[in-house]
Amino acid sequence: MRLKTNIFVPEKIKVGFQNREGTYTKKLAYVIYYDQKGKLRKEASWNSWRDKKIEDFDFINEPTSGFVLNKKAGGYSTGWNHRQTYVRVYDPRDFEFEITIANLLYILENANSIKGKGLEGDFVYGWDGSDLLLIPTCSPDYSEISELNKLRHNKPKFNGKELIIGATYKSNDNIDLIYLGRFYEANGENKESKAYFFYNISHKYSKIQHYKSLTNNILDIVDDKCVDYYSSLMDELTKSSYYSERDPSKDEYVYYTLDEFKHGFSSTYYGDSFYTDEGEKLFVSKYRRYGWYNNYNDTYDVYDSYRNRKNEQVLTEVTLETIFTKYKPKYLVTYKSNGELIKQWRNKHGKQ
After folding, report:
1. Counting C-beta atoms within 10 Å of the first and last residue's C-beta, which end of the chain has fewer, N or C?
2. Share of the chain above pLDDT 90, in %
3. Which residues contact 10 (CB under 8 A, 6 or more apart)?
4. By the 8 A CB rule, do 240 and 225 touch?
């Protein structure tokens, strides 16, 4: 059995408790961790689980010996109540926590459990996504996991201008990526949406990776030489649904006619958008009267944001003619760098 090599090993953990029978200390622990930015992960669920009357503790996540296996926990199903099987483990810092059976099997493959003495060797805490793992430092995977996490915690800061076209970089997920360049994403009408594009050598399907920011995504440079097949990778990039050939300097904002506006927005229920002469983006939805039933009529509300619309309403219960007269609405037309039309972002039947 092998562990994933992208497991996160934090520098510091936090432990909260519940009173619980069947443990050495009469307390069961819930262990969470601080990420690279010092933010506690899973804090909300941790706070809802723990007994706040019992003091919580922070510990440095350094190799520690003296762990002891206690007993099986869970493994039952009663009606809707399902509890996966876990194993309780005693931490020598005087708390007890639970690991999965898969984690236990991995430990027993790589470390001895001595009756009356516990597990031999040093261990650290790691996380595979949201799942806690106890990792023996003598395991064959630990060296690579440890090196990756040293980079995560002490990584160099990459400036986008310093990235080398065609060079190979290591990602936060421990994947080798070839840098293709910085381009616009194919995400519609947001002209500011540029991203750093990479080619994932190892992934079988989604080979194009793109990041808005390099922070916490790119850890290290593996090879600063441009790969020989860079041009063929660019051919693949241009076929990707993530990549846009759009030239924002050629964008046009075109006025709706009244008939186009009424036709496009007459069935708008969920906040479709238009642009004003001032360049503001506004959202329209049918006016809804709440009660026993949702009753619609031929009036509309206007908002300045699609989200939290109740708090950002600028007009309510007005006609489309009123909206048209007040805002002189426009739609966006986008083009490729060669002048070829990409799309008219014009609302038709309530959709763009």
Report:
1. N
2. 52
3. 33, 34, 35, 61, 125, 127
4. no
For the segment 156-163, the average pLDDT, to the nearest whole number, is 83
**Which residue's structure tokens are 């939805």?**
285
Inter-residue contact 302 to 296 (CB < 8 Å): no
pTM (2 decimals)? 0.66
pLDDT given at position 342? 83
What the block records as the tokens of 287 is 């006016």
R_g of the chain computed on alpha carbons: 28
DSSP helix/strand/coil, 259: helix
Cα(161)–Cα(166) distance, integer angstroms: 14
Look at residue 184 and give its three-state secondary structure: strand
Quick one: tokens of 293?
Answer: 């039933």
State the pLDDT at residue 109.
Answer: 94
* Tokens linked to 301: 């509300």
Q: Which residues contact 172 (CB under 8 A, 6 or more apart)?
A: 6, 152, 216, 217, 218, 219
- Tens digits of per-residue pLDDT, 274-323? 999 888 889 988 877 665 455 566 888 888 876 555 556 688 889 999 99
Nearby residues of 70 by Cβ (< 8 Å), 6 or more positions away: 22, 23, 24, 87, 88, 89, 90, 96
Token duo for residue 307: 């989200």
How far CA 352 is from CA of 137, 156, 266, 288, 291, in Å, comes to 55, 42, 13, 21, 30
CB 27 within 8 A of CB 46: no
